[in-house]
Amino acid sequence: MKKILSALLLSAIGAATLPASAAEIVVIVSKQNPATRMFSEQASQFFLGKSNLFTPVDQADGSAIRNEFYHKVADKDAAQVKALWSKLVFTGKATPPKEYANSAEVKKAVAADPKAIGYIDKSAVDDTVKVILTLP
Questions:
Q1: Where are the alpha helices (H) located in 75-129, listed in sequence order?
Q2: What is the enclosing helix (H) or strand (E) of 55?
Q3: Total structural domains in the chain?
Q4: What are the tens digits of pLDDT across the range 63-85?
């Protein structure tokens, strides 16, 4: 009985230390887009207004997937990203990405525009879009 309790306690502790977000994020483009793969650094260029080769499509402000995405590709939090875009918009250098409420809407917008690039939960991927980057 003591061994069973110890095992249960250890598994409960182990589960408590798992990250809250276990979802995998993928960067997607339209099936018509010729891109086949991309590095995180390249993706950050599009989503931070440093390149206009692709049209970025963003998740909703304040969403967990958005916060995790910017942390992984640019090592920036929501406030840093917002400040960067405020400066770019104020100086007229760029227009911020259009925001969509969830992965399904982002996927639909990206599928419809060959120049668009977005990010969604890997579980939302289907044959309407192409994955060019999987974030660890």
A1: 78-90, 103-112
A2: strand 55-59
A3: 1
A4: 999 999 999 999 999 999 999 99
